[in-house]
Amino acid sequence: MSDMADRVDRERVFYDTKSDRFDRLRELIWRAIGEFNRNEEITELYDPRGKRVLLYGCGPALGSKDFVEAGASEVVGIDISAGEIEYGQQVAAQGGYADRVDLKVADAHHTGLPDRSFDLIMGTAILHHLDVRLALAELRRLLAPNGRAVFLEPLAHNPILRVGRRLTPSARTDDEHPFTVEDWRLCAEAFPGFWHREAELTSIPLMPLSFVLPRAWQRGLADRAGAFDDRLLARYPGLGRYARTTTIVLE
C-alpha cells in the first residue's frame, strides 16, 4: 500500500472507531471556545439557492438539511468514514430529507465524481486532514465554471494553540496538520481567485474564561474581542496567521 493509501486508511479507521476519549476531549475543546466561536460567519460567503452543492469531507453531514432548506438544487456529501456516512443517512431519514441528499463514502483526494459538477463546494476542518496539493487539484476538477469553494480550517502558528495541541494528542489524528502559510501559497497557485480571512486572535488567551463566566458575560466579552480582532487584523493582516481559524475562498 502506498504512503497516501496508508494515510487515507488511517483516517478512515480513526473515524470509524473513534474513542470515547476523543469525544470527551473534543467536547472540552468546544466548551473552551464557547461564545468566542465565529465559525458560523462562513455562511456569509455563499448562497446555496439553485446550486449543485458538494459537502466535502462532511462527516455525518448534519448540516446538509440547511442546504436543502436553503434551496440547493442538489446536495452531495462525501466522507472517508463509512460509519459517519451511515449515521448521517440515519439522521437524514429521521429528519425526512433523505431523498434530498446523497451521502457517500469517498476519498476526498479522488472522489470519483464528474468533472465540473458542483457550483458550490463547502467544507469545515477537512483540508488540514488531507494532502493539500492533491485536494486542491481535485477541487479544481470538481468546481464548475464561476463556482466557489469555501472552507474553514484551523491555523498552525499561534503558540498557545500549539501547546494545547501537544497536550491533547488524542483529540486529533496522526496525519492532520493545521493550516500554514505554505498551505495558503498552494491555494494561491491552484486558484487565481483565492482569498482568505482570519478570526479569533485576541480571544485565544481568553477562552479559559468560558469555563467560569456565565453565558451572557461570555457573549459580551466575545463580541468585544471579535470587534477588536477585526480592527486589528484589518490594520495588521500579517497577524492573521496567529488566529485560530482561516476561512478560505477558492474561485
Describe it for me?
This protein is of the alpha/beta class. The chain has a single domain (about 5-250), classed as Vaccinia Virus protein VP39 (Rossmann fold, 3-Layer(aba) Sandwich), CATH 3.40.50. The protein contains eight helices and seven strands. It has a seven-stranded mixed sheet, sandwiched between helices. α5 (about 130-140) packs parallel to α7. The protein starts with a helix and ends with a strand. About 35% of the residues are buried.
> Which CATH top level class fits?
Alpha Beta
Envelope shape: globular
Architecture per CATH nomenclature, i.e. the level-2 architecture: 3-Layer(aba) Sandwich
Strand count, sense and barrel status of the largest sheet are: 7 strands, mixed
Tally of contiguous helical segments: 8
Q: What Rg, in angstroms, do the CA atoms define? A: 18 Å
Determine the structural class based on helices, strands and strand pairing.
alpha/beta
Alpha carbon gap, first and last residue: 34 Å
Give the proportion of residues in helices: 25-40%
Low-confidence stretches: none
Q: What is the helix/strand order?
A: HHEHEHEEHEHHEHE
How many domains? The number is 1
Name the CATH homologous superfamily.
Vaccinia Virus protein VP39
Please count the beta strands (DSSP E, at least 2 residues each).
7
Give the mean pLDDT. Answer: 94
Query: In order across it, which strands form the biggest sheet?
Result: 3-2-1-4-5-7-6
- Proportion in β-strands: 15-25%
By CATH, the topology is Rossmann fold
